[in-house]
Fold each of these.
Amino acid sequence: MGVSELGHLVLYVRDVNRSAEFYRDVLGWRQVLPEPGARPVGAAAFSGGRTHHELLLIEVGPDAQAIPAGRRVGLYHFGLKVGESDDDLRAMLERLKAAGATVVGASDHHVTHSLYIEDPDGNEVELYVDVPGVDWRSDPSLIASPIAPLRL
C-alpha cells in the first residue's frame, strides 16, 4: 500500500474572506465551504470536483508571521491546472492583470506552460496548462527538460 494521490492542501491565511475572494473570484475555483450566503466560519474550502476539497484555507489573523523571504524549508509553491491550451493560459493572465494579482514568473517546462503568482498572503501558486501532444508517460525524461522562458 502506498500513496495513490495528493488529496488536499491546507494554507493558513491572515484574512479568510480576502483569500477566499482571490481563489474564488480571481482564479475561478469553486468554493464549497462556507456555502454562498453562509456566515463565515474562519475557514474556506475549494474543489474542482475531483474530491470534497483540494484546498482548505484557515484564518490565523492579521498578526500572523509572514512567510520568510529567501531559501527556507517548507512549501515552495503548488500547481493548479487552469485549462487545456495556451489560449486558456493567456485568458488567465488577462484575468490576473485585471485583478491586480502579482505575477512573479512564466516558464516553459516543455510538459507544461506555467505562470507563477502570489496569493494575498504571499504563497506562490503555479497556474499551468499541459502542453498538447507531449507524452511524458512514454518518456519521463521530458519532466526534467531544461526550463525555458514562456512566451505567450
Amino acid sequence: MAGNNLVTQICVVVRDVRRANAHWSRVLGVPEEKIETIFPPGVLLHYTHGAAAEYTDCQVAKYQLAGFVLELIQPGASPSPWRTFLEEHGQGVFHFCVLVDDRKAFQHTLAEIGVDLPYHVGYHPSGSYSYVDTREALGLELSVNNQADNRALFQGLMAGAVNPMDELK
C-alpha cells in the first residue's frame, strides 16, 4: 500500500501541447512523447461541482520520469478544470498527484487542515481521482488518486443509484 506519501504525477497545463512536448523532450534529452486526445467516452465518469461532465477534447503528453509522471495537458475549448486554470492563471503547474490507500481517511486529514471536499472527481472501474483545492493550505492543488476495485461504485453511478463523492462523506 502506498500510504499518503507517494507523489505520482505533476500536471502542467499548457496552451500548446505540441510545442511544450517538443521543448520538454529537448530539455529532458528524450524522444517526444505521443500526444493523445483524452478522455475516451465511457471509460471515466467525471463530475465537476457535483454535475456530470464529459471531457473528450483535451490533448495530453506524458513523460515517465524517475518516480513520477510529468503530464502536459492542453485543455480543449469546452469548459473543464484545465480550461478554467489556463484562463485564470495561464500556463503552469496544475496539480501534484498523491496516491492514497483510503480516500475517505485522506479527505479527513485534508479537512483537519481546512480543505473542503473535492470539486472534481473521476471514477473508473479500478479506482478514482479527485481534484482538491489545497492552494491556501499547501500552495498548490492536489489530485488524489486511489486504486481500488470500484466496479460496484462505477455501476451504481452509471445507474443513478449513488451520488458522486458519497463514499467520502
Amino acid sequence: MALSITVLILSLLADAGVCVYLGMAFSWWWMFLLPVLWFFIDAVIFGLWVLILVLWGPFLNKKKPTTKPSKFYYSIVKQTDAWVLAFLRIHVHVRGVSLPKEPYVLISNHRSNFDQMAQIKALKGMLICISKPENMDFPIAGPFIHHAGFLPINRENMVEGVKTINQASSYLTKGYCNIGISPEGTRNKGTADLLPFHPGSFRAAMDVKAPIVICCIKNTDKIKHRTPWKRSDVFLDMLEVLPYQKYKDMSPAEVAEYCSHLIKRDLDVGNFLLGQEL
C-alpha cells in the first residue's frame, strides 16, 4: 500500500511537471497523461526493485535455518507478489467465510505456482507456507522466502517431514503467523479435480488445536493461457473454518476426507459463493 501511494504521488508530480513544461497547466491533458505516467513510473520502480533483489539475494545465506518468521523479509515477498500479479493482470478475489483472528492453518488445492502468491497477496497477516524444498532455490525469490520463514518439507524423508510439521506447530503456538499447506503434496497437473490428501498435512493444526481454514483456489491453472494479454480472475473460496471443537474426535484421515470433500464440491458446483466476496 505504501509503495502504491508513493507511485501515485510521483505520477501526479510528474504529470503536473509535464503539463507546466508544455504550457498545459490549465487544460484537461493531465487526465490523459496520468495513467501513462503511472504505468511508466510503476514499471521503472519495479525494475529497480527486481535489480535490488537480484543483487541482494546472493548475500543471503540459504543454509542458515530459520527459527522464527521474519516480518521484514515477508513484507518483501508480499510486495513482490503483489507487483508481479499486477503486471500479469491477475486479480485475486477472496470469497466466503471470515477468517479467524487467532493463528490458523490454511489448507487448499494446488493447481499452479501462482497459488501461494495469490494467497500471500490477498490475505491479511503473515501466511508462512509449507512447500517443497525446490522452491527455496527459485531464482531471485528463493533466498527471500527462506529468510521470511517459509518451511521446506521433504515428503520422502519421514523424520525430516515431522521436523517441519513440528516447526509449523511451534509457529502457531507462539502466534508468529498462519500456516499454509497443500495436502495434495504436489501440484495437480492432470485433469482430476483433486489428488488424494495426505493426512499428515493436518498434524500441525491438530497438535496445537488450531482452527483449519478450508480454501478452494480457482483459475490459477488458466493463467498461463491468458496472461498478459487477457485479465485473469483468481478466486479464493473460503469454504469453512473448522474449529478444534468440531474436529477433535476425528482422525487425521477423517479430517483430510472432510476437507477434500468440501473443496471437490466447490470445484464441481463452480461459483456457488458468487456475490459473497469479502
